[in-house]
From TrEMBL:
<keyword id="KW-0547">Nucleotide-binding</keyword>
<keyword id="KW-0813">Transport</keyword>
<dbReference type="Pfam" id="PF00005">
    <property type="entry name" value="ABC_tran"/>
</dbReference>
<dbReference type="InterPro" id="IPR017871">
    <property type="entry name" value="ABC_transporter-like_CS"/>
</dbReference>
<protein>
    <submittedName>
        <fullName>ABC transporter ATP-binding protein</fullName>
    </submittedName>
</protein>
<dbReference type="InterPro" id="IPR027417">
    <property type="entry name" value="P-loop_NTPase"/>
</dbReference>
<dbReference type="InterPro" id="IPR003439">
    <property type="entry name" value="ABC_transporter-like_ATP-bd"/>
</dbReference>
<dbReference type="InterPro" id="IPR003593">
    <property type="entry name" value="AAA+_ATPase"/>
</dbReference>
<comment type="similarity">
    <text>Belongs to the ABC transporter superfamily.</text>
</comment>
<keyword id="KW-0067">ATP-binding</keyword>
<feature type="domain" description="ABC transporter">
    <location>
        <begin position="3"/>
        <end position="233"/>
    </location>
</feature>
<dbReference type="GO" id="GO:0005524">
    <property type="term" value="F:ATP binding"/>
</dbReference>
Length: 300
């Protein structure tokens, strides 16, 4: 199954153009949609989840026309919104059972089996009797995944699921997601580069409603080899260096300032670094990454 998004645009009534002519082909497996706050990720995901209409363009999940055959999509869709409420006084087991009924799993025995399997898969079995109001952020997100997985979706959409999780919860959550990708399209949006580098075989970088870069993370990192350079500097030297180099990122490391610059030739006084996905992200956001072309990178 492939999700094919063609020329999608969306402008909100207040005039904000949230999506500008988005075209993406999303294969089976884990796909990362990476971009800063306000990039348009949630807008795109709500359109794919049939909760919002695009102004223009089409979306196909296999043969299903997502914009016009909403009921068909919903049968095979799992959606974990960026923010969702739970009924705080109900246990995970009861609420999941209830959602399973809504999904049409009406046979009691079948439902019991499915609910148990999902609670085990999301590692909530031991806490299934606890009220959802007492769940931690990570537990709540895993419960959201259990709900989204009801009915074996072929399209799974998870919007910023790791925001707000502590490091241990985040790892547990990413492990859970990594098991899902094989037989379905799993689309994950995030502003955290590591979510994508740890999980996704394909990705797109989105900013201000536009796709800046569509790539396989490993290949994108490879393409940058020899072009990313690093130097530890005094903070006071930063503005001077900014004038001389294409700085893509500035970070603090143990109280010192580390800069990465983009350059096709070795700049004096810098060390070569093996590019990681963060370098790909910042190079793209700065406008220096030009995929598939030998075009000169745009001057700042
Ligand atoms: P992201 O999920 O990447 O943070 P969003 O899709 O939520 O981005 O938002 C994209 C842009 O659209 C932002 O400028 C945001 O303020 C705007 N926006 C989102 N939802 C609405 C809405 N319902 N009405 C008006 N503007 C909106
Ligand atoms: Mg969002």
């Amino acid at each position: 199954m492939t999700l094919k998004i063609t020329n999608i645009s969306k402008t909100y009534p207040n005039g904000v153009q949230a999506l500008k002519n988005i075209t993406l082909t999303i294969p089976n497996g884990m796909y990362g949609l990476l971009g800063p706050n306000g990039a348009g990720k949630s807008t795109l995901m709500r359109i794919l989840a049939t909760l919002q209409e695009p102004d223009e363009g089409s979306v196909y999940l296999g043969d299903i026309d997502v914009v016009n055959q909403k009921d068909e999509v919903r049968k095979t869709l799992g959606y974990l919104p960026q923010e969702f409420g739970v009924y705080p006084k109900v246990s995970a087991e009861s609420l999941l059972d209830y959602f399973a009924i809504l999904k049409g799993i009406t046979t009691r025995g079948a439902r019991k089996e499915i609910v148990e399997a999902l609670l085990r898969q999301t590692n909530l079995w031991d806490v299934r009797k606890q009220k959802l109001g007492g769940y931690s952020g990570g537990m709540r997100q895993r419960f959201g995944v259990a709900v989204a997985l009801l009915g074996n979706p072929k399209l799974m959409i998870v919007d910023e699921p790791t925001a707000g999780l502590d490091p241990a919860e985040r790892v547990r959550f990413l492990n859970l997601l990594s098991e899902l990708g094989e037989n379905s399209v799993v689309l994950l949006s995030t502003h955290i580069v590591e979510d994508v580098s740890e999980l996704c075989t394909h990705m797109a970088i989105i900013n201000k409603g536009e796709i800046l870069h569509e790539a396989e993370p490993l290949k994108a990192m490879e393409k940058l080899t020899g072009r990313i350079w690093r130097r530890i500097i005094q903070k006071s030297a930063l503005s001077q260096l900014e004038r001389e180099h294409k700085i893509i990122s500035t970070k603090l490391l143990g109280g010192r300032t580390v800069i990465h610059v983009y350059s096709e030739e070795e700049p004096a006084g810098f060390d070569k670094v093996q590019p990681d996905l963060e370098d790909v992200y910042f190079t793209t956001m700065a406008g220096y990454y030009r995929q598939e072309t030998k075009q000169e990178p745009k001057e700042k």
